[in-house]
Amino acid sequence: MGILTLHIGMDDIDSPSGGCTTHFASLLVGQLEELGVTWLDYPNLVRLNPNVPYRTRGNGAVALHFRMDMKHREKVMDIIEAILDSYVEEHANTNPGVVVLEDRVPESVQWLARRALWRVVPMQLVQSVVRCDSVQYRTRGRGRGIVGALAAVGHGLTGDYTFEFLAYRDLDETEEERGVDPASVRRMQEALGDQLFSNIDPETGRILIAPKGPDPVLYGIRGESPNAVRAAATHVSAGQEVQMWIIFRTNQGTGEHLTHRVSVRGLRPYMAAVVEGQVTSRPVMMRGGHLVFGIEDQTGSIDCAVYEPSGSFRGLIARLVNGDLIRVHAGVRPASRSHPMTLNVEGVEVVSLAEKRTVTNPVCPACGKRMKSAGRGKGFKCVRCGHIERHAEKVVVVERRTLTPGTYLPPPRAQRHLTRPVERAGRSNLGAIFTMSSTPDWHWP
Amino acid sequence: MCEVCERAPAEYQCALCGAHVCSRCLAGTGTQLCLVCEDTRCSICGEYLSSRACNICGRLVCEDHGVRVGEATYCELCIAQEDTTA
User: Fold this and answer.
1) In a domain, A240, yes or no
2) pLDDT tens-place string over residues A298-310
3) Looking at this predicted complex, what is its ipTM?
4) Which class for B57: exposed (0-12), middle (13-18), buried (19 or more C-beta within 10 A)?
């Protein structure tokens, strides 16, 4: 018998009341190992367009790439079916999809992956790819998970990437407190330094490794290498027992959803886009603490919104003035009855600053009091000492700007999984090779 | 080029999002909507695009027909149902 290369993709296995696609993948890893598979890569956790409306949480899909003896071919689908049946909770918003591809990943699937990073891919289009390329698949519910499942396989993490160590708790204890000790997370950060990112929010000191929902994830540690996240985990203590852990290679923290520069006219709902334009209406604080400002380019104008959870980021954005040239990194929020299509701001690059000018009346040369206009063409008059300056003119003052050109992001607690955080600016793992043999214990049990 | 599939020349414009699409990426429902808008429009009003799925029934709903409670979204129909049950 020959050797077969297989790629399994999966998505939308979580529901608002529990479950998790990465946890499902971890269980699948355990079962596939019993078939004696040879892993070609760490499990891939691929974050897709965070603006799609039907995501449950972070819009993450998983792909497994491995080789195995041809004789086990039929067993793979049997294993998938069995885990799907036992794992998936019936929920109206849980629409799992699992795909299995053999040998080379077709170009149509790779295209779909590129597309799913920043746009919405309609089901009908995905179904045509499935038909044309004879993809084997299993779905439950409406089966929308097949979109992310195919995209995860097609992605391949060929650009920049990072790692995440995910520890899981018992599925029967997902309603309990995780009890992750913040002091242990701070010790972890001190020990590993710049090998980790986005695990603590510097503004509030809040730890970001423990999710809030009733899912099986106990904690997740993000870092630059498998050895770093593995070492980091030894520092963390939690109130619940770790039942299983696994290291994923991922596109988190790479910013790769925001690589498309789009004009205002070219914007479409749910797009992840970078829009360059001049500020045309300065930021105004709305009810609820949201900040709204306007930009325009040669093709049109659009409102931009920075939401309350962005914390101090709003203070920086509030310093923008009309005429500033900026690049807005954003997700496109569709129009509703109450507002037009709007850019949900994920970050701002200030390209160049306009002069901030204020125009005032001149100061009285006799007493130092600011003068008032004496009437059209009559100069200025001092109301205190009566001095008149017939030929004086308004004074233009150029204010010093407290904002400088550069990239500004919300604090980590308000960032997307895909956002390239400040710690990763100018950093890339592209070209780096982390072989699986260098971290033999990449999962447990 | 079609903004949805990037494979065929665009012949139509979506009435909701303005995307230029080919005949295959225009939903065949007589609505002049592209496949993306057909997939994502509010399942209650059909007039606006959805913002999230309801945490109870899974319906996609727009901002006018869904209420955000923390990270969760509840549609108008499920809220009405809860009120009736209560």
Assistant:
1) no
2) 999 999 999 988 9
3) 0.94
4) middle
